[in-house]
Design a protein that fits this description.
- It is a single chain.
- This protein is of the alpha/beta class.
- Helix content is about 50%, strand content about 15%.
- The chain has a seven-stranded mixed beta sheet with strand order 3-2-1-4-8-6-9, sandwiched between helices. Strands 5-10-7 form a three-stranded mixed beta sheet. Strands 11-12 form a two-stranded antiparallel sheet.
- Helix 8 crosses helix 11.
- It is globular.
- The N and C termini lie far apart (about 45 Å).
């Protein structure tokens, strides 16, 4: 009796995961978007803290893209109490019409949500209706603004979730992050297209200007999730994921397992902001699937060979569907070389999903860029 229940439960969990990946892939379809005759003007907001190493290539790429765009692009950097030369470096870009402000000049009290405060401050300084929100460590394509403009005019959109890619990647840790991020981009796209859940990445978002009404002692992370869910309440039909290769922003992956763990814990805290029951179920399925696969190895001592056979069936099913999934995504992102790391990355991903997911239930505070936040 116990073995029958075990078999049925395993089959249901594996099937749920399979159907979820198929549903996500089904939404990965392209809309043909031609060049737009109308050029939207943009205000770019970049919150920056201790980004002296990254801010120069970030701004150079933005300037290059702005020079290749017919509309006007205002660029605003908000220095968030940097302890390095970030502010001084950006000031040297004044001749390129890059504006920089110190958050400390606007905000004196100690708060929890500094990034949200920086975004709010940037919105006050912005001139144009459409806001492009980028991180200070991203690199945009030279036709980025043209691609975003085409997407806006083709869809009459009020919010765009843009694709983000970890690149370049050189080792297992970095290729693991590249594959994982591509998978998250497909999940983001599927939720928006199906209108069943809404998530975004703050490294690449575009939206019509509005008061975000952030609580400055709210969670430090989650500005992206908060924003897109607020826009979804207004009009779901005008939210878009921009499936254009020119709209991809690239950023460097974390270079240590410790930094990766801190980053993903920070991301996991956003789960509390997920309001959709469908979204919560979508996140629960991979978590349960991972723990059931790990559980087969533990249940070997109880069920013997059947548990080992179920482990092989379950993990090969997962790897098979994951390979098809990531292979399609890697073609779009031009990251086929990352697929050479598929097997070791998949083993890591199994434990990553299981333990990061578990930690997200218990971790309330974490350290990020020298701050202890929640």
């Amino acid at each position: 009796m116990c073995l029958s229940i075990y078999l049925i439960f395993t089959a249901l969990v594996a099937l749920s995961y399979l159907l979820l990946i198929i549903a996500i892939l089904k939404e990965w379809t392209f809309q043909s978007i031609g060049p737009s005759p109308t050029a939207v003007n943009f205000s770019v907001i970049i919150p920056a803290r201790n980004e002296a190493y990254n801010i120069i290539p970030c701004l150079n790429a933005i300037i290059d893209s702005r020079d290749n765009y017919l509309g006007t692009v205002q660029v605003i950097v908000i220095d968030d109490h940097s302890q390095d030369e970030t502010y001084k470096i950006v000031k040297e870009f004044a001749e390129y019409k890059i504006e920089v402000y110190k958050l400390s000049d606007w905000l004196e009290d100690k708060i929890n949500a500094y990034k949200k405060a920086a975004i709010s401050f940037g919105l006050q300084k912005s001139t144009f209706e459409y806001i492009v929100q980028l991180d200070a460590d991203v690199f945009v394509d030279k036709y980025y603004f043209s691609a975003i403009n085409n997407c806006i005019n083709a869809n009459d959109t009020i919010f765009i979730a843009g694709p983000v890619l970890f690149a370049p990647s050189k080792n297992l840790l970095e290729h693991f992050q590249t594959l994982d991020m591509m998978g998250m981009m497909a999940v983001t796209n599927a939720g928006i297209k199906s209108q069943k859940w809404y998530m975004a990445n703050g490294a690449n978002m575009v939206y019509k200007k509005r008061d975000p009404n952030f609580g400055l002692n709210d969670m430090a992370s989650g500005d992206d999730v908060y924003q897109i869910q607020e826009y979804a309440r207004r009009d779901k039909s005008k939210i878009t994921f921009c499936l254009d290769k020119l709209a991809i922003v690239k950023t460097a992956p974390e270079n240590s397992w410790t930094d990766l763990f801190k980053q993903r814990i920070r991301w996991a805290t956003k789960n509390k902001k997920m309001e959709s029951g469908t979204m919560q179920m979508m996140m629960l399925i991979p978590f349960v699937n991972a723990w059931v696969i790990i559980g087969h190895l533990l249940l070997y001592f109880f069920f013997g060979t059947p548990a080992l056979m179920l482990f092989l069936f379950h993990i090969l099913t997962k790897w098979g569907v994951d390979y098809i999934y990531l292979k399609k995504l890697s073609n779009f992102f031009h990251q086929d070389h990352s697929m050479n790391y598929f097997i070791p990355a998949s083993v890591l991903h199994l434990f990553y999903i299981a333990f990061i997911g578990l930690a997200s239930f218990f971790v309330r505070k974490y350290e990020w860029k020298g701050r202890r936040v929640r």
